[in-house]
Specification:
- It is a single chain.
- The chain has three helices and no strands.
- It is mainly α.
- The protein has a domain at 6-81: Helix Hairpins (Orthogonal Bundle), CATH 1.10.287.
- Helix 1 (16-34) packs antiparallel against helix 2.
- The longest helix has 19 residues, at 16-34.
């Protein structure tokens, strides 16, 4: 199992039951966000999503068809592939100043 830092331990997914609960929590948070309500802050959502993704990578035979991983807006809204005419320069989940500096450095190669 992927080990998370202590401040992210609440998002650990180590069993099928925790995995299913995490999927439901992600879905609820994503749907609420689309309605303008935030039930999880961005960092918590990202940590929970990473935990679900890590569990799926470690247990590929047990991935739920209900998993929002890989869906547009994590399944909160219908959608499909979108062709962008210019690259989207996302912050790539920058959580601290060091992450932001790394992201800034990556822009030079684009």
């Amino acid at each position: 199992m992927t080990t998370l830092p202590a401040d992210q331990a609440q998002f650990a997914v180590s069993s099928r039951t925790e995995y299913e609960a995490a999927i439901e929590r992600l879905r609820e948070a994503s749907q609420a966000y689309e309605k303008g309500v935030s039930v999880l802050d961005d960092a918590s959502y990202d940590h929970l999503r990473r935990s679900v993704k890590a569990w799926e990578e470690e247990n590929p035979g047990e991935v739920s068809p209900d998993s929002p991983i890989g869906l547009v807006a994590d399944g909160a809204v219908p959608g499909g592939d979108i062709a962008h005419t210019t690259p989207l320069l996302s912050l790539n989940n920058a959580f601290d100043a060091n992450d932001l500096v790394k992201w800034g450095a990556s822009l030079h190669g684009r």
